């Protein structure tokens, strides 16, 4: 039995960092995606989540049995820009993205039936 199962995007966030001494901007890679973030937070509270979209999830204690992969379709990349106040804005690279192409037959319905909550994340 799972407390929460999530379906949706698992993506790479590239977060902007600044080096004021050299006046340079670079980007640091971080795992992201709303469904994955929800599960990672729940795992910290000893909940037992499952997710359909691997090492970051496993490191958080997230069951990855239903995770699907594609060699033809891209994983979303998000560039996270920070303004002077530290507020974030996002630019996405997806055309289409793997989570947008998930097919019904790729979803493990047994996991859904064993879940108390199903969280579906979708972005535009």
Features:
3-stranded parallel sheet; 4-stranded mixed sheet; single chain; 36% strand; 124 residues; 3 helices; globular; alpha/beta
Quick gist of this model?
This protein has 124 residues and is α/β, with parallel strands linked by helices. It is 17% helix and 36% strand.
Question: Can you walk me through this structure?
Answer:
The model has no long low-confidence stretch (mean pLDDT 83). With 124 residues, this protein is an alpha/beta fold. A four-stranded mixed sheet has the order 3-2-5-6. A three-stranded parallel sheet has the order 4-1-7. The protein is globular and about 55 Å long. It is built from three helices and seven strands; from the N terminus they run βββαβαββαβ.
Biggest sheet details: 4 strands, mixed
The amount of helix comes to 10-25%
The succession of helices and strands, N to C, reads EEEHEHEEHE
What's the end-to-end separation, in Å?
Answer: 31 Å
How is the topology of this model organized?
Elements: E1 2-7, E2 11-19, E3 24-32, H1 34-44, E4 49-51, H2 55-59, E5 77-82, E6 88-93, H3 109-113, E7 115-120
Parallel strand pairs: 1-4, 1-7, 2-5
Antiparallel strand pairs: 2-3, 5-6
């Amino acid at each position: 039995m799972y407390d929460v199962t999530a379906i949706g995007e698992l993506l790479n966030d590239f977060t902007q960092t600044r080096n004021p001494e050299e006046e340079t901007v670079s980007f640091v890679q971080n795992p992201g995606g709303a469904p994955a973030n929800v599960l990672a937070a729940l795992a910290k509270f000893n909940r037992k989540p499952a997710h359909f979209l691997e090492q970051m999830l496993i490191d958080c204690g997230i069951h990855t049995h239903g995770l699907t992969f594609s060699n033809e379709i891209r994983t979303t990349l998000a560039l996270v820009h920070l303004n002077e106040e530290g507020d974030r804005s996002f630019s996405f690279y997806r055309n289409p993205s793997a989570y947008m192409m998930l097919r019904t037959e790729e979803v493990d319905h047994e996991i859904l039936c064993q879940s108390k909550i199903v969280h579906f994340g979708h972005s535009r």
